[in-house]
TrEMBL record:
It is a multi-pass membrane protein. It comes from the Bacteria. Keywords: Cell membrane, Membrane, Transmembrane, Transmembrane helix. InterPro entries: ATP_synth_I (IPR005598). This is ATP synthase. The lineage of its organism: Bacteria, Pseudomonadati, Pseudomonadota, Betaproteobacteria, Nitrosomonadales. It is found in: Cell membrane. Pfam families: ATP-synt_I. GO terms for cellular component: plasma membrane. The keyword Metal-binding does not apply. The chain crosses the membrane at residues 40-60, 72-95, 101-124.
């Protein structure tokens, strides 16, 4: 993989993470205004678990390049498995240790961060194709 591709991937991940953080903050502020502090903290827990899981997937597969399509697919699948496992572990910890959790806010923060990640990566891909 050449340096330009690495730079594009790094830029895409950074922009997607930035959008995930922004949407998590927006959901947590809305939850704070509508349902209180526990709802805001729940939204932050949901969004943060996705952000940390995504970052763990990127870090775990950083530096592993393959020129074959099957090698690229295996690397992507490993990153996704790590992302899902870290996200699930963080959500389990939130359910276990935070007694005031508001499930709707947690799911809202989680879903928004997960959806924005995909949308952010897709939009960046469109920018790179111009």
């Amino acid at each position: 993989m050449d340096e330009a591709t690495n730079k594009n991937i790094s830029r895409a991940v950074s922009k997607a993470a930035r959008w995930q953080i922004i949407v998590t903050v927006v959901i947590s502020v809305a939850s704070l205004l509508l349902a209180g502090l526990d709802a805001a903290l729940s939204a932050i827990a949901g969004g943060a678990s996705v952000i940390v899981g995504s970052y763990a997937g990127v870090v775990a597969t950083r530096g592993r390049y393959s020129s074959s399509p099957s090698g690229v697919l295996i690397t992507l699948l490993k990153a996704e498995v790590i992302k899902v496992m870290v996200t699930a572990a963080l959500l389990l910890m939130a359910f276990k240790f935070y007694r005031g959790i508001v499930p709707l806010s947690l799911i809202g923060g989680l879903a928004a961060a997960a959806l924005v990640s995909g949308i952010g990566l897709r939009a960046i891909n469109d920018d790179n194709n111009k």
